[in-house]
Design brief:
With 311 residues, the chain is of the alpha/beta class. It is built from twelve helices and twelve strands. It folds into two domains: 176 residues, Rossmann fold (3-Layer(aba) Sandwich); 115 residues, Alpha-Beta Complex (UDP-galactose 4-epimerase, domain 1). The protein has a seven-stranded parallel β-sheet with strand order 3-2-1-4-5-6-10, with helices on both faces. A three-stranded mixed β-sheet has the order 7-8-12. A two-stranded antiparallel sheet has the order 9-11. Helix 3 links the parallel strand 4 and strand 5. Helix 1 crosses helix 7 and helix 8 packs across helix 12. It comes from Trichoderma gamsii. InterPro entries: NAD(P)-bd_dom_sf, NmrA-like, NmrA/Isoflavone_reductase-like, PCBER-like. This is NmrA-like domain-containing protein.
Length: 311
């Protein structure tokens, strides 16, 4: 059986990332379909085939017939549903499955003890790898936080005490974690979509691999702050905080059922903490080169973000 991938189905293609993934796949030359729930009203390019599904195994297996790859962009709250997706892929003879990762490194030993919401992804990851013997290949794509998207999120609209990942560009405020010098990796959201498409054009290189990509593999919070102040001509109000304290606060919120705030606080802490969750460094530099991703400029990204923020 040829390893070349030509036909691709996207699950969750109506979300912020999913829409960009569909566009990137079309631009790369794939024949693209999307599988959406009955209630979805998202419009796609004329070349995209749209299937409605209840996400049952029978429904998905029918949709996946004749498809080379399935890309999951489903929300983090539905990660457990992906076991059904994998089973449907195997039944339909799909060659490659990309699960909904696109964040921090959930393969780290015991990371679920620090960040509880990673437990579901770790469990599913073990399930997916265990299906190699059934003929399904996989690629997990780790990207760190969606950098430009994250910077444009309004702390006020999201009812958070701080901006996402500590940044509040509307008010020119930042929560600086620990020393501010901890390296982290992050990726602009359009680059995430381009990386996913490139995984499929480099199917042999990425077969059964954990792939780490990043627009900025070795960034620090202090570097971002200095660039933002230089480009905006504004001094930011800086508040100091501890990653350990914020992680504990976020986990306590999640246990109380305050999911969104707890999730944001825990993710923010894990970005800058010295746990390695979002520290890809050389791994991202290696995979960026393999996938032939263009090098990106921090100033260019921040100029665009500041323009969006100031509209």
């Amino acid at each position: 059986m040829s390893s070349k991938i030509e036909t691709v189905v996207v699950l969750g293609g109506s979300g912020n990332l999913g829409v960009l993934v569909v566009s990137a796949l079309i631009s790369t030359g794939f024949k693209v379909s999307v599988a959406v729930r009955q209630s979805s009203a998202t419009a796609y390019a004329a070349s995209v085939t749209v299937y409605k599904t209840d996400y049952s195994k029978d429904s998905l297996a029918s949709i996946f017939q004749g498809q080379d790859a399935v890309i999951s962009c489903i929300p983090r709250t539905r990660v457990a549903d992906q076991k059904t997706v994998v089973d449907a892929c195997i039944r339909a003879g799909v060659k490659r499955f990309l699960p909904s990762e696109y964040g921090g490194d959930t393969t780290l030993p015991d990371i679920e003890k620090r960040i509880s919401f990673t437990a579901g992804k770790k469990e599913f990851g073990d399930y997916l790898v265990g299906k190699e013997s059934a003929g399904l290949t996989w690629t997990r794509v780790f990207t760190g936080p969606f950098f430009d998207w994250m910077l444009t999120q309004s702390a006020r609209e999201m009812n958070l005490g701080m901006g996402v990942m500590g940044w509040d560009l509307e008010s020119f405020k930042v929560t600086m974690f620990d020393s501010g010098d901890q390296e982290f990796s992050c990726t602009n959201i359009k680059t995430v979509a381009e990386a996913i498409a490139s995984v499929l054009t480099h199917a042999d290189d990425t077969k059964n691999q954990n792939v780490y990509v990043s627009s900025f593999p070795r960034l620090t919070q202090n570097e971002v702050l200095a660039a933002l102040e230089r480009l905006s001509g504004r001094k930011f109000e800086v508040t100091q905080a501890s990653t350990d304290d914020l992680a504990a606060k976020g986990e306590a919120r999640i246990k109380r059922g305050e999911w969104l705030q707890g999730y944001i606080e825990t993710v923010s802490a894990s970005c800058y903490a010295p746990w390695g969750y979002n520290t890809f460094g050389a791994r991202a530099e290696k995979w960026n080169a393999i996938l032939e991703l263009a090098k990106e400029n921090l100033d260019d990204t921040l100029i665009q973000v500041l323009g969006i923020s100031n509209k």
